[in-house]
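Contributing: when you submit paired examples, paste them exactly as shown. First protein:
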Amino acid sequence: MRRIILNVAVSIDGFIEGPAGEIDWCFIDQDYGMSAFFERIDTVLYGRKSYELMLAMGEKPNPAHKHYVFSQTLKTVSEGFTLKNGAAVDEVTQIKKTAGRDIWLFGGARFAGAMIQAGLVDSLLLSVHPVVLGAGKPLFEGVEQRSEFVLKDVKSYDTGLVQLFYDLKPVS
């Protein structure tokens, strides 16, 4: 079965956005392994807010990947995206069962929290930036049960960014 990877930038104090939704603290000065990551995946999953943020930044979907937007409120999405209005956990479970490469859970916090809660996230790739935001959007929202992960690798960069690679700990 395909693996779902939550790959996200996070501050030292656990926020993925600043208080006003800002992400200007995220390093974009080098690749940080993203080219290799894009080769590993063929599908990207977005919650509504992350999809809207991506569009506002002028980003376009990579035509080499399938792009799914999960929303109960949107009626349409831009070209290159597929809208999923059903129960997100059921929809993601079905996508995970299809043939293909790994799946990038792009975000956001509520959507990622729901996928963690449902046990659908197999791996975390946390790019920890050397900044304390003090407030903002937390990495996860709505997680009410414990999920344990095993550290698989650590990469550090001269900018101070540290990437932590975790896999979901198998249930004993």
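Second protein:
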Amino acid sequence: MSLLGNKARQLSRWLHLWLGLTSGLIVFIVSITGCLYVFQTEIKDALEPWRFVEAQDRAFVPPSQLVDTALVYMPGKTPTGLTYEDETGAAAVGFYYTENDKLDFGVVFMNPYSGEFIRKQEAVLHGSFDFFQFIMKGHRHLWLPEAIGKRVVGIGALIYVVLLITGLIMWWPASWKKKYRERSLRINWKAGFKRLIFDLHSVSGFYILIFVLIIACTGLIWSFKWFENSVYYLASGGEIKAAHTHPHSDVSKAALAVSDSIPAIDRAWYLTLAQNPNPERIYMTPHLAEEDESIEILVFNKKGKFYHHDEYFYDRYTLEPLATEKFVDANAADKLDLMNYDIHTGAILGLPGKILAFIVSLISASLPVTGFLVWFNKRKAQRKLRYSLAGQQGKR
């Protein structure tokens, strides 16, 4: 039995054809770049052994010492981020800065146990070529100007969701008898080229549908605020997503700032470690540009995952805890929101999830190609038939 009536199937076929032809290149680029980016962490770990250190039975040096060392190698720059990895990872201080009217990024890697310099990476965004930065630019905005490209990618992802739905309607067997069921669920590898291409498009598209739909929807959350708010509204049972705000330090208490030799950023780090003695990663902003900025420290609790983290805020003058936002205390909608990146990349399921995301993205990239070939072969056959009929009429 058909999933929908004939008119709906005809409309689906028309939409699938023309939306597919107009968005095929976008879907191909976004899918293949996503596929290539899935294992960027594992590849970098293998190619950049200097990002690791030997575990030692002693504490890490405090943030201020790492910043002081990093500034020796990035003079005149302002540190914008500091990361501690686990016991075998190098610590890193990052610097965003403008040079020759271009935004650039540099990183200084150090041994977290001794504070010794290991390596500096500079001009990652401009100047030197970074393969994964290049891939990510293609994935996010097709190597176009970011404001334009992100919008194009978002519209392409929205069209892709429609293509997945219309594709399911077209795939649905006219009958669930064995003959029709097998044609819809199996690729006939012994068939001719045209039939094989059709099966690769239709059958493989069906098997990845639910997974690629999840990937597309998690991508749409970043592309459109209305989509993000709609998902949150549904997940929360009708609540509006609150804006994420940071608490502020009390400037009136600046005179009360602790004046001993231990910097406030170090004290906040020690306070956070007391509550989280074995974190997988810690991230903080070492430089506070505004007088009322608070010290923010993020603690990541699961290796290779971004969603499971806690945020701690401290008054920069008194070190009074201003707020603590823990993942375990978040409601279901907020947890889903935090999980969005890990769901999108497959990291939510660890290595098996990444392998699945890689395979799904690779097949997804093939769909515009096989879809175009199906259309081209059909168009070629129709043209050949028209010429044949015209020739027969001419002989009469």
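If you have annotations for the second protein, write them as plain sentences, like these:
The chain has eleven helices and eight strands.
Residues 350-395 form the longest helix (46 residues).
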